[in-house]
Amino acid sequence: xxQCATAYTVQERILHDQSKGSANPYRATHPRLFRLFDAFDGxxxxxxxxxxxxxxxxxxxxxxxxxxLRWAMALMNIAKKITVYVxxxxxxxxxxxxxxxxxxxxxxxxxxxxxxxxxPSLLDExxxxxxxxIDPEDVRIYMxxxxxxxxxxxxxxxxxxxxxxxxxxxxxxxxxxxYIPRFVCNDTCTYRTSLQWVPDYxxxxxxxxxxxxxxxxxxxxxxDHFSPTDTxxxxxxxxxxxxxxxxxxxxxxxxxxxxxxxxxxxxDPGRREELLCIADICERVPEYPARTFHEAMQAQxxxxxxSRLEQRTGSIVSNGRMDQYLYPLYRKDMDxxxxxxxxxLELFDCLWCNLAQYVxxxxxxxxxxxxxGYAHWEAVTIGGQTQEGQDAANDLTYLLLESRKSSPMPxxxxxxxxxxxxxxxxxxxxxxxxxxGQGYPKLFNDEEIIPLLMAKGVPCRDANDYAxxxxxxxxxxxxxxxxxxxxxINLCAxxxxxxxxxxxxxxxxxxxxxxxxxxxxxxxxETFLQKFLMQLGHITRYTFAAVPVxxxxxxxxFAAPLLDLLHEKAYDDCRDIHGEEKIxxxxxxxxxxxxGFATMVDSLAAVKYAVYDEKFVTMDKLLEALDADFSKxxxxxxxxxxxxxxxxxxxxPYADSIGLAVERYMQEYxxxxxxxxxxxxxxxxxxxxxxxxxxxxxxxxxxxxxxxxPVSDGASPCxxxxxxxxxxxxxxxYATKAWEYPxxxxxxxxxxxxxxxxxxxxxxxxxxxxxxxxxDLRLWHMQVNIINRETLEAAQKDPDSYRNLVVRVAxxxxxxxxxxxxxxxxxxxRTAYESV
Amino acid sequence: xxxxxxxxxxxxxQHFSMHDGPxxxxxVFFKGCPLRCRWCxxxxxxxxxxxxxxxxxxxxxCGTCLSVCTRGALSLTGDGLRIDRTRCRIDxxxxxxxxPAEALRLYGEKMTVGEVLDEVEKEAxxxxxxxxxxxxxxxxxxxxxxxxxxxxxxxxxxxxxxMETCAFADRELFLEAASLLDYLLADVKLMDDARHRxxxxxxxxxxxxxxxxxxxxxPSLPLHVRTPVVPGINDNMEDILAIASFAAGIGAARYxxxxxxxxxxxxxxxxxxxxxxxxxxxxxxELFQRLRTAAAEICPAQAVSDETR
Lengths: 836, 309
Known about the structure:
A: alpha/beta; 3 domains; 51% helix; globular; B: globular
């Protein structure tokens, strides 16, 4: 008999004490963190147009040059003209825009038309979900100086939508210009320039940009003037490399000047000293190799910040393996007495505050839907293995876990790589950090990820060195070269189409899928499943067919010289990473995403159970109930019986075997058709927050789900359907993976515990056992929410007192009170009940 | 009959239990208990036969159950379902399976040792170094043949075993079960025979003697003694310290106090029984913490080493 008294997480206790007037205990030990944090905490993000303005100004003047060079010229223009900032109290300097708290910037080359449509209304009406503010003067600048240039298909989004074959466009959007997504087969390329990415920061720290520029100059010198390849491809590419090095060094130098100017005006001698130190560092890095830990941190931030100016990386550029590339200088400074742990923590705090202030501005309907709560996740990867396959945990790994515990923000987005030889200490400290209750760290499984990468052609050394990138993706920074974001398939919409002969309950007579016939006439379950798979194949075909279009159009619109400079294969081959032609020796890991996996499995299982096996309802009655959204007399009783059918998440072969059949079909599809695309097309099950908008479009389903409500997230079971607890949910995930194929990638898995379950040292040890088994089951990813449902309910009622409540959303964490009410409810519903 | 075919009455198998023995554990709830603790939070565990529970709040009054009952034991009144418990034979309980609202539930299912352990073994990948199966209840020792067969078969399947017991049982049976266990949890509620009889329906002396005998016979079997602290029953320093001293005296590895809660209250309603205690009783948290601190000074509250985990 389990007896319960409520237990609380560290985060819950801090918030509770704060509401009674006592301060966050970390304020005493991390004074600078909280001085910085207080200055932007709760500010509504400002939209800054400077980046868009200087980018556009240059692009207007460089028509005719090769795109990669134009991009470098535009970056040079930005580096020269954009306002630079040295924030009060900061030790790591650099921003991409406004210093009025949280802020974001604009990418007109991506979605100039959407921005032009949205900015004026942002000014007039604001917006309810994820509000943003903008100065009237900035709107004027944008509308007059920026917007006109990007009209008439000059921005990617418009050009792409207009180039889509009409049948794909029709399934994708409600309107011909693609502003209103249908969320059946949904593009994700129109609101991000590139997939989540990780550049090789270590290279800049070790070598410095001057060295890299000199190498590019040497290569330029050695070009053969009579070779068309050298003159047409290599020359402009290498010139772009040189120019981007110069641009960053110039921009860093402007920070040095400003810091020096601020120092001479500074009255406080302590801060004056700091400013002079900042000036020295900005003069040194990233031009030259970093000599100290502080210099390495500053070099990393300059590169990461400049990458934001270069392109909109979906959910923002990640931080890579920080405990690896920063370690040599950390060790050196510690050994030589230049650095203490508390100083290193302070520098990390400074970086986290920089990350926290930069938000990903989503203006399109699809973008906003996927990134609820100003979502951005610049994953910081720690742990894992070295390139040589040895355990990689070091002092900095543990220091970063420590740093995560004291942060009142959803930053850093900490990701730990776990492998078969991860030390006991790492597992325990991971468990203890999870118990703070903010949903960190998320876990990545080397035992699944590395073999898959190697199976797809990534060399061992690079596979061992992968980094988490964004929510659940991974990158091999010098090898992977696929940057196009592909489509999401709404599995529940596919079922809706199957039930309605290629139409959806919400789309009337419009034919969106394949006419598979009337389900009433199907004699058995095997026929039903076969029709569903035909429908699924039909929609999957669109996602595959869109990939070459996306690649071709992207190549006309985007280049990323900074990314190229830091990508060994792109740099060697003089080919831009967004280009259509493949980079020599690079590996192209594309994917297709599925949304609503558990809802689909449960619904199919319910059809099998209720209609064909137990026969307590006919297909006719079932369809009638679905079309009426269970609203007529007696239908609620049917709905409740349907809810009781076997479900995914309980290690029940009845449901899991159906999930496996669908997964196998998708991987077989990829096995058969991806070679035609010349790419790896990996099946992913990683919805982020897209399970909400995708659910909105889907009618009532046979698992008893009402029309329009959210579908399940990632590869997690449906809410309340996993009545056998988190261990069985993991086993169901294991049981639904088609292990005989390698065409799979991230599966996003939310696990949930009450604080009581993992209380005390014994609780930590049990959590470690849970993690070990997750690892042995070779599941790709896992994140753990440890919180009391009551805390979330209290936060909904009294958002002011819970402003700093951080919860795990999907592959990332965010402030609970900044999420849309629908998403808040979704998270409350998924929160564990205390077992009785 | 083969060991794995022996049947017993089980009312739940709960995966991912975190508070009933070392590591991650699967709990098997045996039906039937010799005690009648007035605060019992699992009233459905007490009787040794299958029972039908009915949640009036959840009931949709849809009548689906009436149509499937072969005994005519159910009728629908303005106040919900009426169960004629003299007619009801349970008999695979079609009413429970057909109930769309989960308002009807079946407490108790005849399962073989093999069936129980097949379900238990699903969780085995999570047991790692310490976890395993915990037999709970009810009182496992009420089903002697079944519990021994289950423990032997668990041993054959290389599962680590724990048992939660009230220790009110036949001495020989208890000792034999103990010989098959890796970890033992036992509840002691009061040290005084008469008061124990009033609170739990049986004297305590048998319990205390059994625990002493087990310790003597199996000194290396970790013993984890627990006391539910119940207002008006034993929420005072004198009673708790007496039990703590007993636990320390027989060399318990761990003595744990569990705070009283009323989470089982609703289930009395489902069984059409009344709650034996006053519903207003509250355990003062401050008092509980004081008792816990004091008890911990006599006998450790947490596992002291890996051995006892």
